[in-house]
Design brief:
Elements (H helix, E strand, L loop, with lengths): L4 E7 L8 E6 L4 E6 L1 E4 L5 E4 L1 E5 L17 E5 L8 E7 L4 E2 L5 E5 L5 E6 L6 E7 L7 E6 L17 E5 L2 E7 L7 E8 L20 E3 L5 E9 L3 H37 L5 E3 L5 E3 L17 E2 L8 E2 L14 H9 L3 H5 L1 H4 L15 H40 L21 H5 L2 H26 L4 H4 L7 H22 L7 H22 L7 H21 L4 H23 L10 H18 L7 H24 L4 H26 L6 H21 L10 H5 L13 H22 L16
Parallel strand pairs: 5-17, 9-11
Antiparallel strand pairs: 1-6, 1-8, 2-3, 2-7, 4-5, 10-18, 11-16, 12-15, 12-18, 13-14, 13-16, 19-20, 21-22
Length: about 750
């Protein structure tokens, strides 16, 4: 048992010119202070205390010597020309050493700090110091210091040594045996003279003697409990769980690919013959394709006269589809002028009332594919230039935390922050492995489809040219890279999450949502989708707005007014582009824009008030604008503090709205949902619902002070290693993967359908 002594002094003197000086001399050091004891706050405000209580640095008998009495010298002096009364009391502390798994209650104040000793048990390598209080204020500091005298236990020096946290109602510090060669440490508790550091009120600037406060009552009741942390075996279990969970996705993908290969092989060896379509699905024919085709004939042309079974392959020329459901207005337009120049003019094609995929896939396939591959190469370039400085910055943050001991720099869930090496919260980093593994798996799946499609093209399979959705994989590759980079940058952010690096965790989420919307639009508009350069430039603008919103969006009304105007105007401009299939030129002169807008209102709202020219598009855009304007009004009125999540919510709602519209229109057009996309849709909905539940379990918030953020900390919920936010990482990775598969497989049923039969919406 370690003996400790506490010295209590009190002086009735309020003369700051002649304080009473107390000097305590021990075998290991000297401790001194004055009464009145002065603490300084903001704006030169001073807080004076006439009662002071300090714990002396304890002496512990060594194994070589026998226990002996401690010799302590207390020197008291004052330069006052008159007598000053004081009171001195020296007591022996009965409960100086803290015990494992046993709560200990005590009180502290600015002039009467407390500290206690803890020794590691033999079988414990790591412990968590849990400190709780019923009252948020006064603001306090919890520090862990090595067994060194003197102990820094006052407000102005508690940050000089060890590891420390500010605290309102809760604090937690993980301590490892390897960091303390003596296998013991002090736990120090200091009460701050002011509360602004913990989010309390900031004292006003007052000049004169009013700035001086005497004997302010700032006593806080605290409870400290030291519990053993997890063992090394839990780290191993967590590693196996993380990797095996996502390796199961690889196994499932292999099984699906193998089943698809077997079913394809069976159909290829069928007696009637068949034609393979790259991607998924097979198209059977009633007659096998001849090895040689006469010159001038149309290879693999389809005779639509057959109404049942597979589509027959006809000879020399393709006949116009019988029973076509093309609108009569289109037929009249064709009868009016059949000149090839008119028919091929995109201004004429894209303004048809009823568009089909063949109308918007007229450009050379190779040129369009190269255009979409730019998305892939650009995102790799962006990822490299973005990730390198990010990694360097977070390493610097972690180094600063480890060197200074200031745990207020990073906003962890300290009740579930498991260190490994130099990393303070390894579990938050490990849980991002799912994004990287599933992103790579998605790239492999896309690569397989790409290879199958190329093989079909090399065989000059006519069905890969004239049937189904055009196969352009550049955006899919970009989505896979974006998912992997989201895992990398989210892991970097969780090395030291704080106000300065929040955009690391959200930047690629914006890009993923944007790329998904672009891919969904590209599916049936391959010729008029946005270029990679304009798309990534738009993402850069969004990320810049997110940064500005976090900096200025809390209290500045002017920012919300400007942002809401940009949001509404961007929605209107994009709606016009979508409604007219890119034929509305934003770059026209202003007079031309106004003239065109007036014509649009006249033709679609006055002449055709009962039915717009493009009804389906109009419904989608009206609902989309209502949603976006609602977001703009909500932001303008409530000004949410988490601006980054607000922007992400706008992206996700628009993506979900467009996906729902796409699926509804697909079913309206009598198209099918095959089993695999149906499974992916259900899995996406279920996993996203579960993921969002854990996302809204807020465990920390860099929008508040570190002490206030720690009030939200909660213990681990999975394997004793992962917290709610880690589960969000796992589930969101799976949800994004299934979402990507939905976009990849949604139109597999159209692989056997002519493009002039596939409607555009």
């Amino acid at each position: 048992q370690v003996d400790a002594v506490r010295v209590y002094v009190n002086s009735s003197s309020e003369n700051l010119r002649y304080p009473v000086l107390f000097v305590v001399r021990q075998q290991k050091g000297v401790l001194s202070w004055q009464v009145p004891l002065i603490f300084r706050g903001l704006y030169q405000r001073t807080y004076n205390y006439q009662e002071v209580s300090r714990t002396l640095c304890p002496s512990e008998p060594t194994p070589e010597t026998r226990p002996s009495d401690q010799i302590i010298f207390v020197d008291i002096a004052s330069m006052a020309p008159f007598n000053i009364a004081y009171e001195l009391l020296v007591t022996r502390l009965e409960n100086f050493q803290l015990e494992t798994n046993k709560a200990f209650n005590f009180t502290a104040s600015p002039s009467q700090p407390q500290y206690f000793l803890y020794k590691f048990p033999q079988d414990v390598d790591s412990v968590i110091i849990n400190v709780v209080s019923d009252a948020a204020y006064p603001c306090s500091v919890v520090s862990v210091q090595d067994i060194v005298c003197p102990v820094y236990d006052l407000d102005h020096n508690v940050e000089f040594n060890g590891v420390y946290q500010s605290m309102t109602k809760q604090a937690a510090i993980t301590v490892q045996r390897k960091d303390f060669p003596g296998e013991q440490f002090f736990v120090v508790f200091v009460i701050k003279p002011e509360d602004y550091a913990c989010g309390g009120s900031v004292p006003s600037s007052i000049h004169g003697n009013v700035n001086r406060t005497w004997n302010l009552q700032r006593t806080k009741n605290l409870q400290v409990t030291i519990v053993p942390s997890i063992k090394k075996s839990v780290y191993v279990q967590a590693l196996f769980f993380s990797f095996l969970s996502f390796l199961s996705f690889y196994l499932g993908s292999v099984v699906v690919a193998f089943v698809h290969y077997i079913s394809t092989d069976v159909k290829l060896t069928a007696p009637l013959g068949s034609v393979s379509i790259a991607g998924s699905g097979m198209m059977t024919s009633s007659h096998p394709i001849s090895a040689s085709t006469p010159e001038g004939s149309s290879y693999g042309a389809i005779d639509e006269s057959s109404s049942s079974g597979g589509r027959q392959l006809s000879s020399p020329e393709r006949q116009p589809p019988a029973g076509s459901d093309t609108d009569s207005s289109v037929e009249e337009e064709s009868d009016f002028d059949t000149m090839p120049e008119i028919e091929s003019d995109k201004n004429i094609i894209r303004t048809k009332v009823f568009l089909y995929l063949s109308d918007l896939s007229r450009k050379d396939r190779r040129i369009v594919s190269k255009k979409y591959k730019i998305y892939f190469w650009n995102i790799i370039t962006i990822a490299v230039f973005y990730a390198l400085p990010v990694i360097q910055l977070v390493i610097t943050y972690q180094t600063v935390v480890n060197v200074t001991g200031n745990q207020d720099i990073c906003y962890y869930n300290f009740l579930c922050a498991h260190p490994l090496g130099v990393l303070s919260a390894f579990n938050n980093i490990l849980s991002n492995v799912g994004h990287m593994m599933l992103g790579f798996l998605f790239l492999l799946i896309v690569l397989r489809r790409d290879i199958l499609h190329r093989r079909a093209m090399e065989m000059k399979d006519i069905y890969t040219l004239d049937y189904g959705i055009p196969k352009h994989f550049g955006l899919f590759y970009a989505m896979g890279i974006a998912l992997m980079m989201e895992g990398v940058l989210s892991a970097c952010y969780h090395v030291c999450p704080n106000y300065s690096n929040f955009q690391f965790d959200t930047s690629f989420m914006y890009m993923i949502a944007g790329l998904c919307m672009l891919k969904l639009y590209q599916t049936r508009h391959p010729d008029i989708n946005a270029s990679a350069y304009s798309a990534y430039a738009s993402f850069a603008v969004v990320i810049s707005l997110a940064v500005l919103g976090v900096v200025f969006g809390k209290n500045d009304m002017w920012f919300w007014v400007i942002f809401s105007m940009i949001h509404v105007l961007a929605s209107l401009a994009l709606s016009t582009q979508i409604y007219y299939m890119g034929r509305f030129k934003i770059g026209e002169c202003y007079l031309g824009i106004f003239r065109r807008a007036v014509m649009v209102l006249y033709t679609d709202c006055i002449q055709q008030c009962s039915r717009p020219m493009y009804m389906d598009r109009m419904v989608l855009l009206i609902v989309g604008n209502v949603v976006n304007w609602s977001f703009a009004i909500f932001g303008l009125v409530y000004r949410p503090r988490d601006f980054a999540s607000y922007i992400l919510g706008i992206f996700i709602c628009n993506l979900l709205l467009y996906l729902a519209f796409y699926i509804i229109m697909k079913l309206r057009s009598s198209e099918k949902l095959l089993p695999i996309p149906m499974f992916c849709i259900v899995a996406t909905a279920v996993v996203w619902a579960a993921a969002l539940y854990f996302f809204f379990q807020t465990l920390s918030s860099w929008e508040e002070t570190p002490a206030e953020s720690r009030e939200k900390n909660r213990p681990c919920i999975l394997l004793g290693f992962f917290d709610d936010h880690d589960v969000w990482h796992f589930l969101s990775a799976a949800a994004l993967f299934f979402s990507f598969l939905v976009l990849l497989t949604l139109d597999d049923d159209l692989d056997t359908v002519r493009r002039d039969k596939i409607p555009v919406f």
